[in-house]
Specification:
With about 170 residues, the chain is an alpha+beta fold. It has one domain. Helices cover about 20% and strands about 35% of the residues. It has three helices and ten strands. The strands form three sheets. It has a four-stranded antiparallel beta sheet with strand order 3-4-9-10, with helices on one face. A four-stranded antiparallel beta sheet has the order 5-8-7-6. A two-stranded antiparallel ribbon has the order 1-2. α2 crosses α3. The longest helix is centred in the middle third of the chain and has 18 residues.
Length: about 170
Amino acid sequence: MLRRAVAEHAGREIAVEHRAGRAPLVPGLSVSLSRTDDAAMCAVTERPAIGIDIERMRPWSELEDVARDIAHEPINDALRVLERWTRIEALAKAIGHGLPDDVRSLRVPAQTIEPLAWLRADGWLWLGCPHPEGYVASLVIQDDGADGTGACVCKRGNAGVEAVVNWTIELED
């Protein structure tokens, strides 16, 4: 899946070096991977840092404790909890230091981001990331002030069903 995303974005095959416990290394590109249950996503861009995360929707009863741990303000909706959680995970991957003890220290947007829309906040670009039904996903890219492009690949189940979403960043100054 990652090789496909890299080839889709670069227009050619590029070697991917897998590293235990860290993001794969691809010369000249930033990549990020995430998986949960039977869904997986990866993202690739030429920008300095990228993070992606995907989570399966779960009932509120499984997320109540998470809601208290991830936000200073109350969150009372399973979708909003998972939007915030996937943004936290994606940002931690983009920064490259893992999750801090207090995940609330990572500043992530609280508002809903429309599909394929970009939100610029605190030095990061957040994409309303397309995802399979029954899942929530977030994508974040370091905002270096330049336009750019990238690709996401989503795979669901053992059947190998993949969807490729190419995106473009066109920043308005």
